[in-house]
Amino acid sequence: MKAMEVRLNVNGEAKQWTIAPGDLLLDVLRREGYFGVKRGCEAGECGACTVLLDGKPINSCLMFAAQAEGADVLTIEGVAHGSTLHPLQEAFLDHGAVQCGFCTPAMILNAKALLDRKPHPSEEEVREALAGTYCRCTGFRKPVEAVLAAAGAKR
Amino acid sequence: MFDRVEAFYRPGTVREALRLLQNGKNRARVVAGGTDLVVEADRSIRFLIDITHAGLSYIRRRGKACVIGATTTMATLENSPAIRALAGGILARAAATCGSVQIRNMATLGGNLANGSPAADTATPLLALDAEVVLADARGRRKIPLTAFYSGLRKTAPGKALLIEVVIPALPRGGRWSFQKLGRTESDISLVNAAAGLQLDSKGRAKWARIALGAVAPTPIRAVNAEKLLVGRKVDESTLAEVCDQVAREVQPITDVRASAEYRREMCRVLVRRALEECAAGTGCSL
Ligand SMILES: Cc1cc2nc3c(=O)[nH]c(=O)nc-3n(C[C@H](O)[C@H](O)[C@H](O)COP(=O)(O)OP(=O)(O)OC[C@H]3O[C@@H](n4cnc5c(N)ncnc54)[C@H](O)[C@@H]3O)c2cc1C
Ligand code: FES
Ligand code: FES
User: Fold this and answer.
1) Of residues B154 and B6, which shows the higher confidence score?
2) Cβ(A112)–Cβ(A95) under 8 Å?
3) CATH number at residue A62
4) Given an 8 Å threshold on Cβ–Cβ distance, is A61 in contact with B38?
5) What pLDDT digit, counting tens, does each position of B135-194 carry?
6) Which residues in A lie closer than 8 A to residue B50 (C-beta atoms)?
7) Rounded CA gap, B128 and B242, in Å?
8) Global pTM exceeds 0.90
9) Which domain range does residue A20 map to?
10) Count of structural domains, chain B
């Protein structure tokens, strides 16, 4: 198997990585230390592996790393500014929307993509944005409240 | 999972993609959104050809037809004003149910059709819209009706060909449309889906009708006998009952983990009835 190079931006930093042509983006990101990208079902169902690719949420378990050539990737590690949490992160903590935390990176990234596009979403739109991420702990109510609160706070 | 893949290509043109596909013989596979291909995890693949940079992401008017490039994503379709305005938005509506937000940002129209699943949600409205598909291979391009694209369970025309675009011809004047999907959740794979198109004459009789169904036969299908039964008649209670009985005879559902054949058959009646009632009432599809 031949190795290849992929160049991309991760959390604002330019990266060049040597990958195998069949590597999935999920595996490469974790190999490079982005452990906030979670390995769940690996079949597109649970959403735990969500990252933002050019601002849009995608399942990194279903994308080849080579497809991210030239793209801007955002993982949960890039959401806070230094030690200042993003308003969504604050809201998740304030609303008890984090329990085991496995789904939290994906929830926050999906919510961020929504708020970046639509700063004042309806509850329905928030639910839709979070529907592709399974949470086995919170029952979704608190994450939905947290996102609505963060949207309110940004007003 | 894909540790035997030897090379990954990102051709910038259709011509280059076709050349790579040709060279790769049976061991090259096209990848678009990857949402079916990665899950399928076929270990015989040696060469992957990413066609999402080959200039096939577009929605255009061509004369009276609407043309959609193969790598247009579900997210683009559901948000496109042109697609939302086309035929009451049945295609936009179907695209909006194709999995989660994340899936719809990746999944493409061409992939949905080329994958050949009988449950592909965009295939059903496209059948009701008399859509055609343009295929390209080393010999050139050809346009075939979507009905001819499917040859059997998970069998589609491509082979060494690329699906280039989907063409939706001019629609009947005053057409009314509906798309119905039954799944475990709104964005889960369909247990049954149905699309209908109806044109009424001045006396309220069906002048033209389309009834298409998904997940109830080896391929997405049109219930042509049910359509024939409908044409020339008023869409009243007795017509609906007869048409739905005919639909139930025309489908060949199977039992799987999601639903039994009996349940699917019954749901065909329910969805087609809802679709036709919506069309008749003119309350058709809206997003
Ligand atoms: C969690 C999950 C939920 C889903 N929910 C739904 C749903 O509700 N409804 C639904 O219909 N589908 C659903 N799907 C299936 C899938 O997302 C769609 O079928 C999607 O449209 C496939 O497109 P793609 O671009 O990802 O295809 P890919 O996976 O890239 O390709 C699929 C197949 O088609 C071939 N191919 C792709 N493009 C072309 C082309 N232009 N020419 C020739 N061959 C081509 C590939 O070689 C491959 O064999 C779901 C999938 C997942 C993982
Ligand atoms: S790990 Fe990617 S969706 Fe579950
Ligand atoms: S907090 Fe545990 S899965 Fe969501």
Assistant:
1) B6
2) no
3) 3.10.20.30
4) yes
5) 999 899 999 999 999 987 778 776 679 999 999 999 999 999 999 999 987 778 899 999
6) 64, 66-67
7) 20
8) yes
9) 4-78
10) 3
